[in-house]
Amino acid sequence: MRARYARVLGGRDVALLDGPIFLAGLFIALSPWILHYTTSQPGLVVHNVVMGIAIAVLALVFSATPTRTYGFSWALVLMGAWMVAAPWVVGSSPDRGVFLSSVIAGGLVALLGLICGAAAMRAGQMRKRAGRTTRSGEPIRT
User: Fold this and answer.
1) Buried residues in 41-50 as b, exposed as e (16+ CB within 10 A)
2) Which of 18, 21, 32, 51 is disulfide-compatible with 63, CB 3.0–4.6 A?
3) Residue 104 and residue 61: Cα distance in Å, rounded?
4) What is the residue-averaged pLDDT of the chain?
């Protein structure tokens, strides 16, 4: 059972970060109603719903197919950085709550994406050092 679990995860060290990434995306999508700025920032409401759903879907994709989605981890860094800048670019004179919510949630997404991306790079380098293998983990004989 351990060998199957290790094979499915493919050495992915950050499987536990999928949950917090999903929750951050869910918070971002629901933040207009949690912080009550649906009427004062209509452009930011649509933006946050779309970005939050996109981040949550990425987290679900990471947990469903962990070995094939290493490269998408870096997208979270860009999405988190965009969330930090969004109150000024998309919104119009955001108040402190909107500003802090976006900066903290975006910073968290960027940090988690950075951790996932770094772990993906490390796992890729370890696979290169270990040599090419088949799907079952056996070395390829030439």
Assistant:
1) beebbebbbe
2) 18
3) 23
4) 83
Nearest-angstrom CA–CA distance, 72 and 64: 13
Dihedral angle at the C-alpha atoms of 19, 41, 102, 49, nearest 10 degrees? Answer: 20
CB atoms within 10 A of CB 83: 26
Tens of pLDDT, residues 101-139: 999 999 999 999 999 888 878 776 766 766 655 555 555
Strand partners, 139: 133
Threshold 0.90, pTM exceeds: no
- Whether the CB-CB separation of 25 and 54 falls below 8 Å is answered with yes
Q: Are residues 45 and 37 in contact, defined by beta-carbon separation less than 8 angstroms?
A: yes
pLDDT at 64: 83
